[in-house]
Amino acid sequence: MFKYVLRRLLYIVVVFLIASVLLFALYKSVPGDPARMMIEGNKANMKPAEYEARYQDAVKKLGLDKPVIVQYFTWLYNTLRGDFGYSLTYKMPVRQMIGVPMKNTIMLNVWSLIPVFAITLPLGIATAVRRNTRFDSSVQVITIIGYSLPFFVIALLFIFLFAVKLPIFPISGVQTPGLKGSPARLYLDKIYHMALPLIVMVFTSLGGLTRYVRATMIEALGMDYIRTARAKGLSEKVVIYSHAFRNALIPFITIMTGWFISIFSGSVVIERTFLWNGMGKVIIDALNQQDFAVSLAMVMFYLILSLIGNLLMDLSYGFADPRVKLD
Amino acid sequence: MNKKLFILVLVVAMISVGLFARGAAEEAVAAPKAETQVILGSSTQVNADFFDGWTNSATNKYLKDLMNGYETVSWTKEGRYEINPTAIKSWMATDNADGSKTYLFNIADNLVYNDGTRILAKDYVFAILYAASPQAVEIGAQYGVGPEYVGYDAFHSGAAKEFAGIRLLGDYSFSITIDPEELPYFFDLSLVSVGPYPSHVIAPGVTVKDSTKGAYLSDNFTADLLRDTILTPNTGYRYRPLVTSGPYQFENFNPADSTASVVLNPKFLGSYDGAKGSIYRIIIKLTNTATQMDELRTGAIDMLQGISGGEQITRGLDMHDEGIVSFASYPRYGYGKIAFACDFGPTQFDAVRRAITYSLDRNEFARLYTGGYGIIVNGYYGASMWEYIENKDLLDRELNDYSYNLQRAEQELINDGWTLNKDGRPFTKGVDSIRYKRVDGQLMPLIIEWANTANNPVSDLIAAMLVPEVRNIGMQINGTTVDFAVLLDHLYKDGIDEPVYGMFNLGTGFNTTQAYWYYYSTDPEYFGNYNTNFIADAELESIALDMKRTDPQDLKGWTDKWIRFQKRWNYLMPDIPLYSDIYHDFFNPRIVNYDSSSTWDFPYAILRADVK
Question: What is the mean pLDDT of chain B?
Answer without folding.
Answer: 91
